[in-house]
């Protein structure tokens, strides 16, 4: 399996990174974050979500954010949408790319969205149909692909099945999320081998959390498995609701440092991302969780 | 190249990790650290150094530490020695394994030990001879193997040459240090290919710093190159004198999490190491820099 010559990074900091922040972040700050990341060359910046403001209050300003967003030509700004109501709100705010999510474990599905995995697919079908009617490109997330905080082990074949279903619904790409950051190299390889028997590797993105320090190593393993798209979060924003104080998403800067070192093209300026990471971390009153970010700016 | 079934971890936290700490750490604390790490199953714990107390005041208590150390059968407790005077002091304190150090770059050699690389080997010859006379096992360190803060790029062939010289001097094992944590996977692979043309892979240990977040990924690459010995530091103790605020040695807990995940034996109890990492970090008044350590104890 040849490593890709070019990789697409999907920046999820403004959504996945910020969604669990306890203190409200002004829309101006989020907007500046999204625009800085796009200016640094990130080709995809997930900028918000249209979920219940009661369940995820931090994302309540997403409509305003999308309305005010100055879009760069060629940059995609997907929003997470859970249902028809969310999609309608997203469309109303000018969203042109959306992301749907399901789980690869029953325990997580029940606790996160209060339905079974099978039911979640049934519920998403009309959302996907409506998105297609509006020519909204769709991305799919599968969570808990390497383990579940409730059910433990997750079979690679189950992930492959769920990923295929998302493509059937009309998703262009499926992001496989190690939601609790539990996976190591061989598990990643086994997972990718199983999923790639059902869907093309170029439709797969990997989404790692650095909870146990394995994020960059798991990206490396995925590259060696021919994967060319990765979700990541500036300054390692985000945490793990299942492990208080634990690290969040793999940091964009750390992944970029790896890709630059391997001579893989991204079109992204590492220093600009690091500066944005230092800036948003200062806004949140916390240390930069990206090691490359800290070292580059020291 | 087959991955090893068993890996030996060399814990360097008490020496490499603590040596640059600004506030004096009581010998009792260092002693407890060394003994806790040995009890957790670390087969090698580098416990101190016999260098100039003026240059490295934090290591001034090493003689007392070695005198008071309760040794576990089967555990090795090497000390760093720079010269004959240091070796004599180490022998006097009961040290039975020692480590010598050289650099793979002229700039670092001059600034760190004020002599050329060639001269450093000449100076170490009598130290190695005296160590042999006392049946002291020797380990060798080569620093800056993937780049130098002064000279930039370092040729893999130069590292190979220096590693071979250390074996010629009587070292059992050579630890190749990415002192500034600059390397990525392909550089590690090229380095190991070059060094393995000169010395057997079982004589090579790798020593990574996590400055740019690449530590665990570089361990993974080295495993895939057949390397079975790694230096690491509990709680990621240590910093980088060339990048203020940057991360230190790759954390023992993060490496162990990888090895456990790959089914590679170490004989080390990850939870005990994580608890020791939390304890020493509290003593130093800092956060645990190991991601796996934080997650495991959350």
TrEMBL record, chains A, B:
Source organism, top-level taxon: Bacteria
UniProt xrefs under PROSITE patterns: PYR_CT
Alphabetic keyword roster: Acyltransferase, Lyase, Metal-binding, Transferase
EC code(s) of this entry: 4.1.3.4
Family matches, as Pfam families: HMGL-like
Aminoacyl-tRNA synthetase recorded as keyword: no
Pathway the protein contributes to: Metabolic intermediate metabolism; (S)-3-hydroxy-3-methylglutaryl-CoA degradation; acetoacetate from (S)-3-hydroxy-3-methylglutaryl-CoA: step 1/1
Molecular-function GO terms, alphabetical: acyltransferase activity; hydroxymethylglutaryl-CoA lyase activity; metal ion binding
Domain Pyruvate carboxyltransferase: 7-274
BP term (GO), one: L-leucine catabolic process
Coiled-coil region(s): none
PANTHER family listed in its UniProt record: HYDROXYMETHYLGLUTARYL-COA LYASE
Assigned protein family: Belongs to the HMG-CoA lyase family.
Protein name: hydroxymethylglutaryl-CoA lyase
């Amino acid at each position: 399996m040849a490593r890709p010559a070019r990789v697409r990074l999907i920046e999820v900091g403004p959504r996945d990174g910020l969604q669990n922040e306890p203190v409200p972040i002004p829309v101006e700050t989020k907007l500046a974050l999204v625009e800085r990341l796009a200016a640094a060359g990130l080709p995809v910046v997930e900028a918000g979500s249209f979920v219940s403001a009661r369940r995820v209050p931090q994302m309540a300003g997403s409509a305003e954010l999308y309305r005010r967003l100055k879009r760069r030509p060629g940059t995609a700004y997907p929003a997470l949408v859970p249902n028809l109501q969310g999609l309608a709100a997203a469309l109303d705010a000018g969203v042109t790319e959306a992301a749907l999510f399901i789980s690869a474990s029953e325990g997580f599905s029940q606790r996160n969205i209060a339905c079974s995995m099978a039911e979640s697919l049934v519920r998403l079908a009309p959302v996907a149909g409506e998105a297609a009617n509006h020519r909204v490109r769709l991305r799919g997330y599968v969570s808990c692909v390497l383990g579940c905080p409730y059910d433990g082990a997750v079979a690679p074949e189950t992930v492959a099945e769920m990923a295929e279903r998302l493509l059937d619904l009309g998703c262009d790409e499926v992001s496989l999320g190690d939601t609790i950051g539990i996976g190591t190299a061989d598990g990643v390889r086994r997972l990718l081998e199983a999923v790639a028997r059902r869907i093309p590797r170029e439709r797969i993105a990997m989404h790692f959390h650095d909870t146990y320090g394995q994020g960059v190593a798991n990206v490396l393993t995925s590259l060696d498995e021919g994967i060319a798209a990765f979700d990541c979060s500036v300054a390692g924003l985000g945490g793990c609701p299942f492990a208080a104080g634990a690290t969040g998403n793999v940091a964009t800067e750390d992944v970029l440092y790896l890709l630059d070192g391997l001579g893989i093209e991204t079109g992204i300026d590492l220093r600009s991302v690091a500066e944005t990471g230092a800036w948003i971390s200062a806004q949140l009153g916390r240390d930069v969780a990206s090691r490359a970010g800290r070292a580059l700016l020291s």
